[in-house]
Amino acid sequence: MTLFALAAAATLAAAELSIPGPKGPLAATLTDPGRRAPAIILIPGSGPTDRNGDNPLGVSGGIYRQLATQLAAQRVATLRIDKRGMFASKAAIANGNDVTIAAYAADVRGWARLLRQRGKPCAWLAGHSEGGLVALAAAQNPKMICGLILLAAPGRRLGAVLREQLKSLPAAKFGLADAAIAKLERRQRVDPASVPPELRPVFNPAVQGYMIDLLSIDPAALAARTRLPMIVIQGDADLQVTVADARALAAAHRGARLVILPNVNHVWKSATAGDRVGNLATYGNPALAIDPAVATTIARFVKPRR
Question: Which residue in 13, 39, 157, 302 could disulfide with 120, CB within 3.0 to 4.6 Å?
Answer without folding.
Answer: 39
